[in-house]
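Q: what sequence does this backbone want?
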């Protein structure tokens, strides 16, 4: 691939999705964009790049962006965040929302839906104690292709074997040929919407619990800060944010602080004018 073409795709992906593509990932660019080139009847990536420069066809730009967006996901990925959700975060939020008896949950960059459906199954398991509550799960992604797959709620044998307990497979899925389909009751618990994290997020409304896991690792520092500050605007003071195990807010934004006793979970930091003295901040950070 020519350097100019690589730079073109690199700039396009950074602008449209926040994805930072380094030169050592040129092979990934070629492997994922060649199917796009063929689908659009181009003979090479050089021809694809030329079309991008000349026409700026929005449909083509969207295809390129979606092809390069990482869609790795699995049910109950890393397990610990879901244990935290059921044992600590959900009870905490139920106490805080006892008057309204309503909780909104956002699964950002949800890919093919395993994360929000995992949350839906956990909520279904706790249905007796949630009687009279309204729990809304909104799941978003910038890729219409993966959202269509998520809405279908149908997964391969390989996909259901990755992290999904056999008891939940039997309870919440029906086998249809070589596919496993979620029962309608679980599928109805999740609303899927197209949303780019780099765009205005306010139309999504306010959320009490936000999952934005294993997303920031693909962004540079300014983009991470932009996304986190956008999310912060959707969160009440006592809301909760989940990040991936390799992600942090430290050195990126002062909008968030770690939630006491919950690794990988964050809450909004107090405004500067109401913060305790520096010594107190230091002790909190060291916990």
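A:
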């Amino acid at each position: 691939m020519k350097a100019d073409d690589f730079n073109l795709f690199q700039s396009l992906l950074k602008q449209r999705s926040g994805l930072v593509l380094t030169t050592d990932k040129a092979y990934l660019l070629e492997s994922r964009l060649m199917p796009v080139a063929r689908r659009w009847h181009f003979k090479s990536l050089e021809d694809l790049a030329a079309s991008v420069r000349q026409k700026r066809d929005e449909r083509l730009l969207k295809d390129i962006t979606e092809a390069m967006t990482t869609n790795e996901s699995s049910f109950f990925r890393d397990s610990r965040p879901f244990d935290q959700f059921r044992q600590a975060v959900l009870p905490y939020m139920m106490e805080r929302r006892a008057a309204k008896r309503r909780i909104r949950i956002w699964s950002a960059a949800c890919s093919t839906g395993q994360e929000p459906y995992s949350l839906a199954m956990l909520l279904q398991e706790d249905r007796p104690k949630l009687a009279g509550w309204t729990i809304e799960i909104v799941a978003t992604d910038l890729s219409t292709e993966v959202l269509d797959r998520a809405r279908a709620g149908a997964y391969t044998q390989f996909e259901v074997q990755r992290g999904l307990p056999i008891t939940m497979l039997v309870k919440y899925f029906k086998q249809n040929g070589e596919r496993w389909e979620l029962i309608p009751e679980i599928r109805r618990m999740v609303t899927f919407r197209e949303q780019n994290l780099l765009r205005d997020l306010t139309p999504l409304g306010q959320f009490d619990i936000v999952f934005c896991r294993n997303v920031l690792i693909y962004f540079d520092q300014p983009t991470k800060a932009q996304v986190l500050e956008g999310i912060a605007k959707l969160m009440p003071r006592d809301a909760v944010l989940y990040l991936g195990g390799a992600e942090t807010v430290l050195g990126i934004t002062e909008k968030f602080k770690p939630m006491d006793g919950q690794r990988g979970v964050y809450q909004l930091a107090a405004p500067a004018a109401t913060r305790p003295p520096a010594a107190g901040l230091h002790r909190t950070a060291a916990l």
